Amino acid sequence: MGAGVLARLLRAALQHLPVPERHGDPAPGPRPAIRAAGAHHRVPGARSGEVVAPLEMPPWPPFWANCRAPKLFPVLLTGEKRKEPAMVVDLPSGMGGGPELDLLELRLLNLQGVADLTVAAESGYNFRGDRKPRLLRRNLQRFQGIASLLYLDLDNCTHFAKRVQLVRSKRNQAQNLWDIQDAQRACLWKTLRNLSLPDSALVVFTDLDEIPSRETIQTLTKHCEIRSDRKQVFQIQQHTLTRSLRQASLTGPSCMQSPWLQGVVTTFRWAQGHNVSLRMRAKADLMGGATHFSHFGTAAAIFWKGLSHGEGGSLSLPLERYNFCDLAGSPSQVSGLVARLRDDPVSILRWWMRTAAGPCPRTSRWTS
User: Fold this and answer.
1) Residues forming beta bridges with residue 118, ordered by sequence position
2) Residue 226 confidence (pLDDT)
3) How far is CA 321 from CA 318, 327, 350, in A?
4) Nearest CA among 52, 18, 22 for reference residue 334
5) Domains in the chain: boundaries
6) ∠ Cα 138 141 144 (to 5°)
7) pLDDT at residue 312, rounded to an integer
8) How wide is the angle at C-alpha 111 spanned by C-alphas 108 and 112, nearest 5°?
């Protein structure tokens, strides 16, 4: 699909998004001091515009950890308090397209005061080898004051750059589109291992859209003592959110998909001598340790992510047959697709899981 067709589709999706109705004035009372929050990624083909204002957020309230929490004790925790907190490094991978800055904002705010360092990697290419804007570098000042952020330019990593050029040289040929994403993860770990960190530092390693549980990470790393025979690598079992928080609030936990076994927490000492992957163990250690925002953001962001990621490389569409170019040129079909994405997301985003008795809403306003 050409860049012009993609730009028309994304602009059409944005233009035909429904405007939410207002239901009275907000309730009185103090509000969080967060300015300019919301979707601030740029759509391909759109003008860059001005960068958004820095984030401001009040401190999190005090957290009282339960060192005998059933999901952690006695499997991982001794039940006793830590003598001193461990350093926490957040290592998200997967910045390659879609609502990157929105997800990074969620992640940084959620781990504010818990993660002592976040390593964020960015490239001028997505996971298909297509050129893309460097949104994070353009907006680095937005995150000053809420996180200690180490910016990694992936295009300076030889292994990553070679993978990108290899994929770009094999257009119209069958190839492994995971190569670029795997190279990104390898460069992240190479960078981390070259830092002077204490052996006891704990590294949280998940994809960008897999937001770690603040309470779980805080309990494990800052407050409670880990059993001496378990200080190695801990496999995370995540909740998966099919579409959005709004959908989950309307339908309840039953609309969140089955647990997703991915992501690890490991000591820096162990990681220096081992290859670390997102799936190290067949059995979970940290139940509910993160939430996978598998399709997050506006319709335009979801379309963009689908085209940018190696495992997809296509638009998110229903199982029915469609012509991409005809869809891009039809505002009525785009409006119908956006409505269906809002009302019946599983039928588009995870159509293979669709059942007649599925727990998610089945209302569809699709117009052909």
Assistant:
1) 90, 149
2) 95
3) 8, 11, 16
4) 18
5) 69-297, 317-353
6) 145
7) 54
8) 75
The answer to whether the CB of 368 falls within 8 A of the CB of 336 is yes
Task: Check if the beta carbon of residue 37 is closer than 8 Å to that of residue 53.
Answer: no
Tokens 């809403």 — which residue?
361
Query: Residue 79: what residue type?
Result: G
pLDDT for the residue 328: 67
- So what's the pLDDT on residue 363? 39
State how far the Cα of 207 lies from the Cα of 91, in Å rounded to an integer: 8
In this prediction the pTM is 0.78
Residues 188, 159: contact at Cβ < 8 Å? no
Distance from C-alpha of 94 to C-alpha of 311, rounded to nearest angstrom? 11
Q: What is the mean pLDDT of each run of 10 residues along the chain (368 residues)?
A: 44 39 31 29 36 76 93 94 96 82 90 95 89 89 87 95 91 73 94 95 95 95 93 87 57 55 94 92 87 79 73 63 68 79 73 52 35
SS3 for 178-218 is CHHHHHHHHHHHHHHHCCCCCCCCEEEEEECCEEECHHHHH
Report residue 330 as tokens. 């039809």
Fold type of domain 69-297:
Spore Coat Polysaccharide Biosynthesis Protein SpsA; Chain A (3.90.550)
Q: Tokens for 341?
A: 């994405």
Closest-CA residue to 96 (of 25, 167, 15)? 167
